[in-house]
Amino acid sequence: MSFIADNIAPIMFLSLLLFLLTGFPVAFALAATGMSFGWLAVELGLVPAQFFNALPLRLYGIMANDVLLAIPFFTFMGLILERSRMAEDLLDTIGQVFGPIRGGLAIAVVLVGAMLAATTGVVAASVISMGLISLPIMMRYGYNRPLAAGVITASGTLAQIIPPSLVLIVIADQLGQSVGDMYKAAFIPAFMLVGVYMVAIMILAVTRPKWVPALPAEALVYHEPNGNSGHKSLGLLTLASIIVGHQTFTHWAAIKAKLGGDPNFAPPTDERVVVALMVGIFFAWLVAMIDKAARTKLLSTLAQQVTFVLIPPLLLVFLVLGTIFLGVATPTEGGAMGAAGALVMALTRKRLTGTLLKQALDSSARLSIFVMFVLIGSTIFALTFQAIDGPVWVKALFSALPGGELGFLLFVNLLVFILGCFLDFFEIAFILLPLLLPVLKEMEINLVWFGVMIALNLQTSFLTPPFGFALFYLRSVAPKTEYVDKVTRQRIPAFKTGDIYRGAIAFVVLQLIMVAAVIFKPEIVLYGLGEQKVLDVENVNLNITPEEEEEEAPPSFGPAPTPAPTKP
């Protein structure tokens, strides 16, 4: 018993790991471990029995947490958009834009994955949608199978890091940081990862052209009367929109200063980017609407199709992320507006049915309840773990690591990567982050930067064989038997599980490269937060004159002291 009393913290942690390996539900494993070892600690006299009185207050605090309301809102928004076939429209249109070039279809999948991530935020919906729509086309025209699988699964998991990511909401809550700051910090590394995917595809288009063939002419459906594809018109419209947006970005500070009456006002970069993007998008939409109403045929059919398909989801992105970045709405309020916007979009497209609404509400409620139960279990576990001085043991454990702060970061990332092969990202965040928080504060590590780094690492958990969830999602929709293609009438062999695994490994390597870049170049993340003002306590100069000091002095009820001589 003395051995147990001296080592109760590591025994408790190892017991939890053994509990999880049995396949017992995580929420109940956490709660059972916390309650059992709490009772044991009371019996051993390590903690008073009254410490359990804090548990009801903690549970009420979870249920009163407004930040967690964003999870059902964003989940509901994503499910409505996914089941109203927005992904199908985007893939069809963007695939026509990039199809004529080698690797164009893969690039289209990456871009659509990024757009779905910024609107739906649901990995399962993104992977399944793109697997159903783009995988048959890739197989039809001879794409390398592992590459096709890797592009679809990796693009689907972009929802883990691109705001409004559910992962970033949970990490911000566990680290005690602002969700808005986490979104701003994740914006640059998220789209750098999208760029890394696209660069890798372009390199393959040069080095392995047979892996990523261009679509044949008969696969392109948008043609002009003169036989042109319409890409020139689309390019000119895009260039004009970029110029208008850039001019807005350049002059927005002066406009905002004039509107606010402060000539020295300088809006932050993220605000200027959001406003410039929205002005450029509105300009493209206005030109397309005028051209369609006047029937002037200034724009090609392809340019009009791209404009009208892209504008609604981009407006929804602004409604959610733009209002958060501009400080108009909190993440929870942004999620509520996004859910309302998704309902309006589905209604205007005449795709909102009672069945769709019921399914979206049911799935959102299930996910919210799952998160709530895991969070309650982790709170019970954390209460007992803190009472038995578990954080002291964790600090001692990590202080023994070689390499200081860098050694700590490398070890944590390796641990998260390994746990990601077996556990869901919610479970990893709720179990691991509360244990690491005291160590992070003692090392004075920026918590927002650390949270974005962990989110990038957790993204790999969806791709790591053999338990990556994105791999299972693609396996569920990939053809399991040989079939005859409807267009080419050729026999297409079944899609093997090994092809999915091989394709995922290549993109896991790309993601780990991005994690390493964030570790060694924190500026990638911190730039999104803008200038960080730190108060230099040692050099504060109040400059209080003797007269001001006499005025601010508290009233005295004794004899007045003799004033000390002062220098002129």
Structure description:
This protein is mostly helical and 568 residues long. Among the domains are: 2-66 and 369-457, no CATH class; 226-329, no CATH class. The chain has helices spanning 2-6, 8-21, 26-43, 54-63, 70-83, 86-98, 104-119, 123-140, 145-156, 166-175, 179-207, 231-260, 269-294, 301-325, 331-348, 354-387, 390-399, 404-419, 425-442, 447-459, 469-477, 497-520, 523-526, 546-552; strands at residues 483-484, 491-492. Strands 1-2 form a two-stranded antiparallel sheet. Strand 1 and strand 2 (491-492) form a beta hairpin. Helix 14 (301-325) runs antiparallel to helix 15. The longest helix has 34 residues, at 354-387. It is globular, with a radius of gyration of 28 Å.
